[in-house]
Amino acid sequence: MRAMKTVALSLFAAVFTATGAAANPYDDPETVWTLVELDGAPFAQRATLSFPDAGSVSGSAPCNRYFGPLIAEFPAFATGPLAATRMACLDLAAEERFLTALSAMTAAELRDGLLILTGTMEVAADPQPEEAVREESEPEAEAPAEAQAEADGTEETEVDGQSGETEADATSDAQDARPTQSVEVTMVFSSDG
């Protein structure tokens, strides 16, 4: 009877592991995971993820190789700062999307042979429709000094050493101060082996 229980438990463990329910992808340095979907859309460029050693991640982004620490245990997912080579290519925007999303992932699961990572990212919030309409229909009135400076071709600046901010700096600061919203992001990887 004891031998039967041992065989039954071994068989259960083998089936459970084969379905991926108990497998830990972080413990498999041989598997290379290829990104097939980012936030519900197919990812056309090649990007991979692997776990070469305990506590580390590495792979290929669309342009460069990357690597860094893995600082969570499955089923959590978190990387430390990721480092990457610095080759230029036409897919740098896709690479930035991939690496930004990967850094934002907080959970992992294996489902039907896929590694699914989820997390939350901060993205620029879209203006409310009425705000966008108001901004388009009501241009800002220029202050008289600004209008005169524009007509003269001069720009008014402070000389006290405290300001020195250019118009481009002010525009950049305004863009950086845009409201953000949190969105759930999903990355789906298939196994290359």
Helix content: 25-40%
Low-pLDDT runs of 5+ residues are 1-22, 131-143, 154-168
Largest sheet: 6 strands, antiparallel
Q: What is the distance, rounded to the nearest whole angstrom, between the alpha carbons of the first and last residues?
A: 39 Å
The proportion of strand residues reads 25-35%
Number of helices: 5
The counted number of beta strands is 9
3D shape: globular
Structural class: alpha+beta
Q: Mean of the pLDDT scores?
A: 76
Order of helices and strands: HEEEEEEHEEHHHE
Computed Rg:
26 Å
Walk me through the topology:
Elements: H1 2-18, E1 32-38, E2 41-42, E3 48-50, E4 56-60, E5 65-69, E6 83-84, H2 92-104, E7 105-111, E8 114-124, H3 129-137, H4 144-152, H5 167-176, E9 180-191
Antiparallel strand pairs: 1-2, 1-3, 1-9, 4-5, 5-6, 7-8, 8-9
Structure description:
The chain has 193 residues and is an alpha+beta fold. It has helices at residues 2-18, 92-104, 129-137, 144-152, 167-176, and strands at 32-38, 41-42, 48-50, 56-60, 65-69, 83-84, 105-111, 114-124, 180-191. The strands form 2 sheets. Strands 1, 2, 3, 7, 8 and 9 form a 6-stranded antiparallel β-sheet that branches. It is globular and about 45 Å long.
